Amino acid sequence: MTRVRNLVLGQAPHIYNSQSTSSLTWGMSLALVPAAAWGIYCYGAAAALAIASAIASACMGELAVGGLSRRFTLGNGSAFLTGFLIGMAMPPNVPLYIPIASSLFAVLIVKAAFGGLGSNWMNPALAGIAFALLDWPKAMNAWTLPRNIAGVVGVGGATPLEFVRQSLAAAAAGSSPLDILKSAGFRFSGLDHRITDFLNQLLFTRIGSDMPSGYFDLLIGNKSGAPGELSGILILAASIVLLARSMIRWEIPTFIVAVFSALTWVFGGLPYGSGFFSGDVLFSLLTGSFLLVTFFMATDPVTSPSTRIGMFIYGGGIAIITFLIRSFGSMSEGMAFAVLVMNCLVPLLDRRRAPLAGGTPLGAKEV
Amino acid sequence: MSSIRTFERGGIRVRGDGEQEEPASIVNAFLPNSAVVLLKQHAGAPARCVVRRGEYVREGMIVGRGLGPGSADVHAPVPGVVRDIRVVLLPEGGESEAVVIALEGSFDRLGRRAERYVWNSMGRADILRTVRDRGVVDTEAPGVPLYDLLADRESTDALILNAVESEPYLRTESSLLRERSEQVSDGLAILAKLTEPARLVVAVDELCIEESLRPWAGDARIEIVRLEARYPQDMRKQLLESVLGARKRASSSALVIRPSTAVALHEAIVLAKPVMERYVTVGGGAIKNPAVLKVRIGTPIGDLIEECGGFLGPPARIVLGGPFRGFPVHDLDAPVTKTSSAVLALSEDEVGGARRNPCIRCGRCASVCPEKLEPERLFRLLSNRREAEAEAWGLKDCTLCGACGYICPSRVQLVAAFAVRLRQGISKAMEATR
User: Fold this and answer.
1) Do residues B66 and B176 both lie within one domain?
2) Position B28 in a domain
């Protein structure tokens, strides 16, 4: 027999697509780097420290679980990504025990305890963030302004969503969120004023309308908030890469954005007393963790449905619950909870009858 | 040229980007010093050995007699002395007797002008008997004898020449279409006479060059259909779906035939030659000079690789057949058979070295499945020994095309699990008929 050494005797197929589970998770982490860099630029070492401690504790947790089961899985990048996402949701200057505890909760309780990668039914990062929001509501709502607005690091200032929420009662009926921000003294950057004035002169005044200042700061990330929710444009750029390389499926984000925009447009004006069909869609999309959660967390394949119809219901459900929490709930930001609620419904959405079971309840039983 | 058609759902584009590809030209391989002729080169039971050790066999002499349906006669591909009759393991699993012939003596056919027989005057029964006696089988694995395919098909709704190559590396059929166009069209004409098809279709992929379709230019009887080079376009179910439509697919009695089968048929009828040769693609990233070779059956694959310049680097896998459905081999002495379409030596990069991970329920497997199955669910059911439920979810429709295994980012061994279960089913069915 003429044998060749080191041959792998695997079954067909003998070639594989280059995309692997680890390349997907590491790729997602890579896509987050620009947004993280912007966050660190805005808040300095405090933000970097929060992100680093979240990542480090997530990886330590994964390592500890690996040590117990003798299966080391740090290389698949899942723990790193979970820690990264949790770190991105932390307010700057947060006490470091919060990201550390949240990451450990995510990796040890939400993921490992339910069987590790692929078996968890709740998104670990979101569960970790929810854990922090529920346990330390005050620390998780202590925001500071970025350095390019305040001039120095560490000046306190609420996020746009929180700001609107607090000033809503005092505002005149019928004013838009941006009006409220302006009249309550929310600080926008000089750059935003200049760009808005320029666009108004060039375009909007000619067609008889006027763009309020503020959108550019919201889009670029000149506002207070967690690193992950600061810069809409960097998250959107990352999402284009993720979609173009088929690293995430388009159905879930499309439906979240579509349903959420429609709801905001139709009913979004109600809390402001400006009636139907007057909601500010752009403001809602660009504030809070909406974009980050939509593209990086709601698309987590493990905790989302596997059928297209399921994905549509899942995406729509997230949008509806987020809208309800934001407009009528007790929190200014409720996206994490919306996704976690829909995570619970995934087994139901994936439930179907076996096509060849012939009317017997055989297929109704889920594995 | 008419528009490019394809099957309804799933599949993977792994070849080309719309550009037409020049097929490789065919090279005659050297004769083997010693040919290992398997007595099972077809779907059914191994042929019965009719030679003895030490006996001299002439080129084309029968060495194994087919035993009933599914089984076909096997002939000596080279003249020589039977050195050994031994049992060898088959790449697809199981084992078979093999006759080892050491090359010796003179050739009766090689180098002589071939006599041509006029098949137009032969009757159906005559042609069928000749097809059986010359050991012609469908060149696609598992190698159903052509006689079995033709015997009960006095008429058919379609005869389709399947020249589609949707897997990477494989060039055998497109090369034959261009360089052996007369043999292919003759073979097709013989089949048309035997099966009286309502539609006569030549199916090629979008990458097929116009020149290859010369023999049928201006022939009103023949429909030329261009299909998308989307894997598994070349498999029967998808081909019928693309050509005839999804609704007609199941009920069709169409005969689907490869150009290489048409060439073998042509040689058997017109040149009165039993099957002694096979056209084989030798390729893959670890092969120095990939080529399409005309090879004597029984030639060890190591000889072919050597003839193509040897290995470029250490191969990670050697495959007999295509990259999606072929069988792994670890022994360079494994011989070429009537159904060996390719010998591939794949490098580490091509195989994709990523580690296995747990399923992350991404759903890519279901989105590429051309049979609308949910491979992930089937795998979960089979892992939990819930075979009956897996069948309720359509496991038996699985064609083992391998698309789900290719796309899986966690490298879950989906296809292996399905293959084990489906082959168990087949062997049980065979036991029941005994």
Assistant:
1) no
2) no
A210: contact with B, CB 8 A cutoff: no
Q: Measuring CA to CA, which residue among A298, A286, A38 is closest to residue A164?
A: A286
CA separation for the pair B202, B63 (Å, rounded): 35
What would the DSSP string read from start to end of B119-171? GGGS-HHHHHHHHHHTT-B-SSTT--BHHHHHHT-SSEEEEEEE----SSS--
Q: Residues of A341-355 as b/e, b for ≥16 C-beta within 10 angstroms?
A: ebbeebeebbeeebe
CA angle at residue B239 from B234 to B240, to 5 degrees?
Answer: 155
> What is the average pLDDT across B301-308?
95
Nearest residue to B163 via CA among B57, B51, B247, B257: B257
In a domain, B371, yes or no: yes
Of B317, B381, B403, the CB nearest to A14: B317
pLDDT tens readout for residues A60-98 = 999 999 999 888 888 899 999 999 999 999 998 899 999
Cβ distance A117 to B408 less than 8 Å, yes or no, reads no
Rounded Cα–Cα distance for residues A205 and A348 (Å): 51
State the amino acid at position A36 in one-letter form: A
Helix, strand, coil distribution of chain A in percent, nearest 5: 60, 0, 35
More confident residue, B264 or A352: B264
pLDDT of residue B179: 92
Number of domains within chain B: 4
Residue B427's pLDDT is: 62
Q: Which amino acid is at A189?
A: S
User: CATH number of the domain that B52 lies in?
Assistant: 2.40.50
Task: Label the pairing between strands B156-162 and B197-205.
Answer: parallel
Burial string for B43-55 (b: 16+ CB within 10 Å, else e) reads bbbbbebbbeeee
B328: its two tokens: 């792994």
pLDDT at residue A153, as a whole number: 67
Chain B residues whose CB is inside 8 A of the A307 CB are 363, 366
B277-283 vs B342-346, strand pairing mode: parallel
What pLDDT is stored for residue A208 in this prediction?
A: 77
Show the domain range for B377. Answer: 364-433
Do residue B352 and residue A17 have CB atoms under 8 angstroms apart?
yes
Does residue B257 share a domain with residue B206?
A: yes
Residue A3 has pLDDT above 70, yes or no: no
Beta carbons of B347 and B284 less than 8 angstroms apart: yes
Tell me if B252 is assigned to some domain: yes
A46, A295, A18, B394: CA torsion to nearest 10:
140
Residues 6+ apart with CB under 8 A from A316: A255, A256, A259
Query: Two tokens at B88?
Result: 């060898």
A116 touches chain B (CB under 8 A): yes
Residues B188 and B314 both lie in one domain: no
Counting one residue from chain A and one from chain B, the pairs whose CB atoms sit within 8 A come to 162
Q: How far apart are CA B429 and CA A310, in angstroms?
A: 38
Residues B138 and B254 in one domain: yes
- Exposure on the CB side of residue B231, measured as CA atoms within 13 A: 26
